[in-house]
Amino acid sequence: MKIKELKVFRLDIALKEAFTIAFKTYTHAHNCLVVLETDNGIKGYGESSPDKPITGDSQEEALTFMKAAAERLRGHILDVEEVHKTLLELERKMGLRSQTGKAAIDMACYDAIGKAEEKPIYQILGREKPLEVPTTLTIGIKTIEETTATAKRYMEEFREYGLKRIKLKLSGDPKEDLERVLRVAEIFPGELTLDANQGYKNPEQAIEVFDKMYDELGRRIILVEQPTPKEDLDALKKVSEESPIPVFADESAATLEDVIKIVELGAAAGINIKLQKIGGIYYGVKAAEEANKAGIKLMVGCNEETHIAISAAIHYTSSTSGMMN
To answer: What pLDDT is attached to residue 53?
Structure first.
């Protein structure tokens, strides 16, 4: 089976409500859609969700890369490993690295292969039955009143689905973050995960506030993501070693090379693998293998993505060992 054509489209989506994290507020998703058609008429779909501070590429860079890839991949055998070899060569030739562009093409390849073999992607990845992994609803940075109101709304809207876990974005303000977490814990009886998005520049400050949170809530807080600046692995390691709450690398783990470095340094208890920043399912599998060998736990996150990219992430998650439960 060969790739007949690869079409690339700009995909701009207005969010229903603004979403704020420690360093940015999102009102739109500026994504890209990929449609891959094979020589026997099968179509595979993929999605790029670039975010420069997180994935390292912009929408324009992703579009430029994928349009060049479309020319290079026309008539190419549909083999995921061979496709990625070609994309790596193209990156080097262009001097342009687009993790989300690779991820979108990767998703489209797997989608087409799954349709050709009439198998779900988790089976293509070697898992006969999908693993059941808990999911989480996220609340961005809001006022305390807005945060608790959103938590109550989630509890009502998702009651029938057995909502067990809410993720709270942290601002990097210790007093504000502590109050937000404790107030949500008062009304929501389930587990909490936290995400600081690099908000704590001082690791000692992060350790202090995590100690206070743990003293109040204990193991109800199951992890905190990326408390410190992404380039400062020493700070990340310090917080991970001294925090009673398990620390997961996110922005620090953008590529397979980053994951390997974090594993070698023992810089975190876990890693958030996002297909958008790792470069797709193919590299996600390799990253999971590295983490599993070291006993480092995994979780799978996302950007502002539609069901196309989320579906790929679900198949990847449900086929991968070592996920944080």
So the answer is: 92
Mean pLDDT of the chain: 97
Query: Using 50, 70 and 90 to split pLDDT, how confident is the model at 130?
Result: very high
Judge whether 206 and 196 are in contact, CB under 8 Å. yes
CATH fold for the domain made of 3-119: Enolase-like; domain 1 (3.30.390)
270 close to 249: Cβ distance less than 8 angstroms: yes
Q: What class, spelled out in words, does domain 124-317 have in CATH? A: alpha beta
The residue ranges of every structural domain in the chain are 3-119, 124-317
- pTM greater than 0.85 (yes/no): yes
Q: How confident is the model at residue 325 (pLDDT cuts 50, 70, 90)?
A: confident
Contacts within 8 Å (CB) and 24+ apart, 289-296: 290/256, 290/259, 290/260, 290/263, 291/259, 291/263, 291/322, 292/321, 292/322, 293/263, 294/263, 294/266, 296/262, 296/263, 296/268, 296/269, 296/270, 296/271, 296/322
Contact 51, 69 (CB under 8 A): no
